[in-house]
Amino acid sequence: MVTRALKGPRFMVSDHPLPWLLPLIVILVVFALYPFFYNIFLSFHEFAPRKRALVPVGFENWQKLFADPRMWSAFYVTLFYTGVCLTIQLVLGMAIALLIDSDDRGFGFLRGVMTLTLVIPPAVTGMMFLLMQDSQFGLISWTLQSLGVLSPATPILATSSLAIWGVILADVWQWTPFMVLIFIAGLRSLPRDPFESAMIDGASAWQIFRRITLPMMSKVIAIAVLIRGIDLFRMFDYVFVMTSGGPGTATYTLSLYAWQQTFSFIKWGYGATLSLFALFVILIAANLFVKIFKVRW
Amino acid sequence: MRESDRKLFLASVTDRYVRGELSRRNFLQAAGKLGLGAGALGLTATLPFGARQGFFNSAAAAEISPDADMMAWLKDVAKPFAGQTIRLATESTPPSNAINQHLKPFFEEATGINVEIEVLPLEQVLQKLTLDVASGLGTYDLYYLDQSWMASFSGDVIDPREKYAASSALAMPNYNFDDFLKPLVDGISMYEDTMVGVPYDIPIFIYMYRKDVYDELGLKVATTMDEFLANAQAIQKAKGPDIYGTTGQMKSGHYSLECDWTAWLWGHGGSVFGPDSKFSGNDDAGLAAMEYWVKLKENMPPGVTSWTWDGQGQSVGQGIAGQVLSWGEFFPSWDNPESSRVSGLMEAAVPPAPKALRTVGETGFGEIPGVGHQGGSSLAVSKYSKSQDAAWLFAQWATSADTQVFITTLGGGTGPTRTSVYDDARVKANAKPGIPGTTRHLNVVRDTIDNHMGSEPDLPEWAELSNDTIPVELGRFFAGEYDNPKAAMDSIADKVNKIVAG
Amino acid sequence: MVLTPAQRILRALVAWAVVMLFAFPIYYWITVSIKLGRDIFAIPPKIFSFETSAKSYEEVFGISLGFEKGIAVLPGGGDFYMAPRLMDSIIIAVFSTAVAVLVATLAAYALSRMRFRGQHHFVFWILSTRMMPPVAVAIPMFFIYKDFGLLDTYTGIVLVHALMNMPLAVLLLKSFFDDIPKEIDEAALIDGASRFLIFRKLVLPMALGGIAATAVLCFIFSWTEFLFALTLTQTSLKTVPVVSSTFVTSTGTAWGNMAALGTAAMLPAFVFILLVQKNLVRGLTLGSVKQ
Question: Which PANTHER family does UniProt cross-reference here (chain B) (predicted)?
Answer without folding.
Answer: ARABINOSE-BINDING PROTEIN-RELATED (PTHR43649), DIACETYLCHITOBIOSE BINDING PROTEIN DASA (PTHR43649:SF12)
